[in-house]
Amino acid sequence: MGNRIFALGLALLLTLSHAAHASAATPRAADDWSAVQALTPGEKIVVRTKDGDRLTGRFDSATDLLINFTDGRKKISLTRESLRRVQLDRGNSRLSGMLVGAAIGGGGGAAVGGWVYSQGDFIGSVVPAGALLGAGIGAAIGAATGKGRKNVTVYEAP
C-alpha cells in the first residue's frame, strides 16, 4: 500500500512539473500597431513605456501616432514612439498559483509526515500521504489567491 501511494505522489509531482514548463512557452508578440487600434474601448490595459514606467487603465482610442486611455479619472495620451509594450490585463493566474501552492504544500506536508513518522510507531506511508494532502491543500489555496498576472501582449515595439 505504501508503494502505491508513493508512486501516485511521484506521478502527480511529475505531471505538475511538466505543466509548468508547457505554460512557460509564450509566442512573441507582433509589432503590429493595428492590433492596438482594434482594441475595444473600456478594456483594461497595461502600458509599459521605454522609460520603464508601467501604467494601467482602460483603453479609450488609438490613432496612428497616439494611444489614449483613462487611469482612474485622469486621461492619458502617449505617443507610439514612447511605448515599449501594450498588454491586455486578464487578471490573476490561477494555474500559476495552483502550481506554486501545490509545490509548497507538498513540501510542507512531506516534512510534517516525516516528523510524525519519526515520533512514533507509524507506517511508512504517512510521509507520501502527508505530501499529497499538503499538495492538495496548497493547490486549493494557491488557486484561490492566484499568483502573477495573465497579461496578453497586444503590441511590442520593434
Protein model, in words:
This protein is of the alpha+beta class. Helices cover about 45% and strands about 25% of the residues. It has four helices and eight strands, in the order H-H-E-E-E-E-E-E-H-H-E-E. It has helices at about 1-25, 35, 95-120, 125-145, and strands spanning about 45-50, 55-60, 65-70, 75-80, 85-90, 90-95, 145-150, 150-155. The strands form two sheets. A six-stranded antiparallel β-sheet has the order 4-3-2-1-5-8. A two-stranded antiparallel ribbon has the order 6-7. A hairpin with a 4-residue loop joins strand 1 (about 45-50) and strand 2 (about 55-60). Helix 3 packs antiparallel against helix 4. The longest helix is centred in the last third of the chain and has 26 residues, at about 95-120. The radius of gyration is 23 Å and the shape is rod-shaped. The N and C termini lie far apart (about 60 Å). Residues about 20-30 have low confidence and may be disordered.
